[in-house]
Amino acid sequence: MTGTLGDLAQSRADLAVIALPDQDLAFALEVAGRIQCRAALILSSGVQAPLAGELHAIARRHGIHLLGPNCLGYQRPRLHINASVAGPLASPGSLALVSQSGALTSAILDWGSQNAVGFSTVVSLGPNTAVDLAQTLDFLATDPATQSIVLQNLVRGLSEKSRYYRFASSLRELSVPMLARYTLIDYDREMALVAVRTLRAPGPDGEFVSTSSIIGVSRYVANPDRSSCEFSLLVDDRFSGQGLGTRLMLGIMDVARDKGLSEIVGLVLCKNSVMLKLMASLGFDIRPYADDPDFRLCSKPL
Fold first, then answer.
1. Are 72-147 and 159-302 equal in CATH topology?
2. pTM across the whole model
3. In the chain, N or C: fewer CB atoms in 10 Å?
4. What CATH number does the domain located at 72-147 have?
5. Long-range contacts formed by 48-55: CB under 8 A, 24+ apart
6. Contact 62, 87 (CB under 8 A)
7. What residues does each domain of the chain span?
8. How does the average pLDDT of the chain come out, rounded?
9. Considering just the CA atoms, what is the radius of gyration of the chain in Å?
10. Angle between helices 273-281 and 244-258 (to 10 degrees)
11. Highest CATH level, class, for 159-302
12. Measured torsion, CA atoms of residues 86, 88, 93, 97, in degrees rounded to the nearest 10
């Protein structure tokens, strides 16, 4: 299907992929609405917020699910769809990649290519997209081709006790807002380090298939004073006691130190003896927490 925008207005399509100068974007999206596209992708970059808002309004009026503008696009490897500017189509796999950062998306795709890791779906949201993270995760949660939304799988695989120690609640999985909070990182004031385990095994057709899973996460969030930060640590039960927590904590402390922070602190449940033992081994000062006797306050100068 080729021709001018006027020619295309007489056609029908399921997906519109738009990469045009700013002045042509609104008209192109209007055409997509007229030909009853249910989804549109705008790959144009450098689009300012007022024009992005106008595009969102057009999409809402026509009932279009709009990804973009200012994003790298979308890949669906098993369907051989590469509607992106993120490079070659990724290899098919069961791992979904969703990121707001184009640079991070490209880096992970490069890593996947070098390590034979495939993806079910790749979505680069960008800062101005109409389709948001919650909608994307809702889709992936029911997608049969996606077996790993990796952070969610880590939490689901923890024992009830481990989930309670980390989140101080009996949750069985992360809610969509929590997933958004833990995966959309504000790099000016926070950082997360992730330990990933990749396994390769022969698939039904005899070719090797790689699957990846998160087995540990450490993070910090800078406090409003911008001199101290609060840490958190989560390790897959299967790898507890093997030094992974130590390496993740040392790594996140190095990052915080390099950012100019002078102190790292965190609250640990009194019942969590394993975590308190780790904090002591790393030289943290451990003392009662005045606001809640069920916790201990762990702190260390950086």
1. no
2. 0.54
3. N
4. 3.40.50.261
5. 48/22, 49/128, 51/22, 51/25, 51/26, 52/128, 54/26, 55/25, 55/26, 55/29, 55/130
6. no
7. 5-67, 72-147, 159-302
8. 83
9. 22
10. 50
11. alpha beta
12. 0
Distance CA 123, CA 19 (A): 17
Question: Which residue would you say has higher pLDDT here, 265 or 3?
Answer: 265
Q: Determine the average pLDDT of the residues in 43-68.
A: 91
Classify residue 128 by its DSSP letter.
T
How do beta strands 263-269 and 228-235 pair? parallel
Mean local confidence (pLDDT), 274-280:
93
The CATH number of the structural domain formed by 5-67 is 3.40.50.720
Burial of 88 (0-12, 13-18, 19+ CB in 10 A): exposed
Predicted confidence at residue 215, as pLDDT, reads: 83
Looking at this protein, which amino acid is placed at residue 179?
L
Cβ–Cβ < 8 Å for 161, 225: no
Structure tokens at 80: 């051989």
CA-wise closest residue to 222 among 181, 249, 250, 260: 260
Q: Which of 210, 29, 39 is nearest to 118 (CA)?
A: 210
User: In sequence order, what are the residues at sequence separation of 6 or more whose Cβ sits closer than 8 angstroms to the Cβ of residue 194?
Assistant: 214, 216, 217
Q: What is the pLDDT of residue 13?
A: 79
| 169 token code pair | 């609640």
pLDDT in tens, 181-224: 666 667 788 888 888 777 777 766 666 666 667 788 898 999 98
How do strand 39-42 and strand 65-67 relate by DSSP bridges?
parallel
Instruction: State whether the Cα torsion 82-86-87-90 is positive or negative.
Output: negative
- The SS3 of residue 139 is helix
Q: Which of 31-35, 49-53, 105-109, 250-254 has the least mean pLDDT?
A: 105-109
Whether residue 182 contacts residue 100, with contact meaning beta carbons closer than 8 Å, is answered with: no
Answer positive or negative: Cα dihedral of 53, 124, 145, 135: negative
